[in-house]
Write a structure and sequence with these properties.
The chain is α+β, with helices and mostly antiparallel strands and 281 residues long. The protein is 19% helix and 32% strand. It contains six helices and 18 strands. The chain has a six-stranded mixed beta sheet. The chain has a six-stranded mixed beta sheet with strand order 7-8-9-10-11-12.
């Protein structure tokens, strides 16, 4: 198999070129418009015929090179069915498979960063776009992003893939090229992901107050998170852990909610606008 990871310095975007062998059909994931000439030169050098181009989502930090590649190679442009783009040739459903020679790539709907975000799984290669980065996740405060959707995409879909799955993200800003699901599932990284989503949720939620009211502590075994947004109640109740206690008290709903091993209880408490999660992982 031919696998090339290409990097755009201006947007820190990773583009991927995939083919089964020299002289065969090829696919490109997340091309950048300014680099189309480079892609075409590489295709010619490897004697490859570009037949498909995939964008994981509509990008805010660069212009896709899909249209220019189509004009130059007559390839098919592909996105997920939730994309609002009108000039796409094929829109894939969640779980749908596309083929390049004997290679199969499965579409996974992973909204959160944007409402049209998809990841793509080829054997043990995961191309996650901006949904799951290396030790992080994409922002959720624009393009119909949702921290709640991002939580489900991360913790209920991508991080449940086999641990040996190789992660190839849409961006990296720290000189890293790839990771594994095993690494991204480690307690310290899960903590970073959760902290990021909580911060993003308070930005997204119009009812939340200052984001500096968020407090996070991590001692290696337990995460304690305090935040001021009732928006995350449903998310907190679904966090995977051996023990979860979620306490909330709010002037509009003065109650204490505790969730331990899936069992919920409600009792009255004094009014406050601060929430706390304790999570043992």
């Amino acid at each position: 198999m031919i696998f090339k990871q290409l990097f755009d310095d201006n947007s820190s975007t990773y583009t991927y070129l995939i083919a089964s062998a020299n002289g065969r059909e090829a696919l490109i994931i997340d091309p950048v418009e300014e680099n189309v000439a480079e892609y075409i030169n590489l295709l010619e050098e490897l004697n490859l015929k570009l037949v498909k181009v995939i964008d994981t989502h509509i990008h805010a930090d660069h212009v896709t090179g899909a249209s220019r590649l189509k004009n130059n190679t007559n390839c098919t442009t592909i996105m997920g069915e939730n994309s609002p783009a009108e000039t796409i040739d094929i829109k894939l459903k969640d779980g749908e498979i596309i083929k390049i020679d004997q290679l199969e790539i499965k579409a996974l709907y992973t909204p959160g960063h944007t409402s049209d975000s998809y990841s793509f799984l080829m054997n043990n290669y995961l191309f996650s776009g901006d949904t799951l980065l290396i030790n992080g996740t994409g922002r959720t405060d624009f393009q119909n992003g949702s921290s709640e959707d991002a939580y489900h995409s991360l913790f209920n879909k991508l991080l449940k893939l086999p641990e040996e799955t190789l992660l190839y993200p849409g961006h990296d800003y720290n000189g890293k090229f790839s990771s594994t699901i095993a690494n991204e599932k480690s307690p310290s990284i899960k903590f970073k992901l959760l902290k990021n989503l909580i911060n993003l949720s308070t930005i997204n939620n119009e009812n939340s107050t200052a984001t500096e009211d968020i407090a996070v502590n991590y001692d290696g075994d337990e995460i304690e998170i305090g935040f001021n947004s009732k928006y995350l109640l449903d998310i907190a109740s679904q966090i995977q852990g051996s023990k979860i206690q979620f306490s909330l008290s709010d002037s509009s709903s003065p109650a204490l909610f505790s969730i331990i091993a899936g069992n919920s209880t409600i009792s009255q408490s004094s009014t406050s606008s601060f929430f706390t999660i304790w999570l043992t992982i």
